[in-house]
Amino acid sequence: MEPTSTADRSGAITRTTTSGKDAWYPEGKRDGFILRQLVTKDFKLKYRRSVLGIAWSVLNPLMMMIIMAAVFTRMMGRADESIPNFPLYIIIGNTAFNLMSDATSKGLMSIIDASPLLKKVKINRWVFPVQKVLFSVVNYAFSLIAVIAVMIFFRFAPSVYALYVIPGLFFLALFCIGLSLFLSCAAVFFRDVIHLWSVFLTAWTYVTPLFYSIKILPEWMQALEMFNPMYLYVTYLRDALLFQQAPSLELTLGCAAFAFGMLIVGYVVFRRHESKFILYI
Fold it and tell me: What is the spatial distance between Cα 88 and Cα 230, in angstroms, rounded to a whole number?
């Protein structure tokens, strides 16, 4: 129903009636409403029938840190005397990498999983991979409680530099959105991507200094880490939380370059091919 206007005899009062669709989804707010609903739904599904519920977002990184610290402290912890606290070094790296891994793995399947809805309702397709990333970011925010708990346990007081976590998380989220857009598009046309990505993530985990110091690597491998986006993001967060210093300008520019570069690539690829999704999902 099209908006209509009526006026009284004097022409002084005008009344506008809107359609039910416009009343429920004001222009410019529909996608935001859908994103909130989908993120809420994912939280309910993830912790459904769980006794501890959202507490697992805190317990998971804590338990992984305890196991990895127990295994690697003697072997890796003394490789770099400049690391002030090896368990904290591990948990900061693991939580950041898990954010990327979780966001992209779910984003990879987002269009395929939403196929029943996409076949029935006209909706912006980019909402689904972006929603998966936002869910992972919110989940990461809860995992920061575990990081704070470790800092308190080791009497490692946070400083004002901890505020750099905000831009660091922003850059990492943009990078994940771009990568999820690209992967979700690729998975629609090439289902092998679904299997290959899990293998790639495993390899990426080991080439990123998460539970070891970069100083144990040969110089040529240390140089290559500058082209590893996850090493840059993990280092950015460790500078803010562990080393309590402002990330360097070079590091900040590197994080921003990967974030906006991946976002542009992912968006362009997604927009160019999204009209064909309905033929393959």
Answer: 17
